[in-house]
Design goal:
Blueprint: H1 4-27, H2 32-39, H3 43-50, H4 64-78, H5 84-100, H6 105-111
Helix pairs in contact: 1-2, 1-3, 1-4, 1-5, 2-3, 4-5
Length: 132
Amino acid sequence: MIIPCEIAVKCILPSVRAMLAKELVTRHNLSQEQTAKLLGVSQPAISLYYRKLRGKAINLEKEREIKKMIENLAKTLANENFQHKNFIQAFCEICKMIRAKGLLCQMHKNFDPELDTEKCELCLTQNSLKCI
């Protein structure tokens, strides 16, 4: 049995990082090295995210609410107005929103074919997820 957080680590986390990297490099004019330091990854990882060679498991670009959350987090990071705890909380809120919108369900089904996504409502209400 695979739990949703495992899918989030494999699929959502890289996709959100990719969007954050793109936002920080293009909109906030940070270098790939600065972006890597902020996100806690290597500069080559940022290059892969930026060129869409990593972090493409789920396309979040059309999800306005999620995209806005990522833009806000990037703005906070770029302005050096953040604390580590706040970064973690914001990232978890983005993940919870993705789950609440049901965007994780099909990926979860692909990893765990026995999962009945029609009956599972675990992720579909943002307030039911008390990760933090």
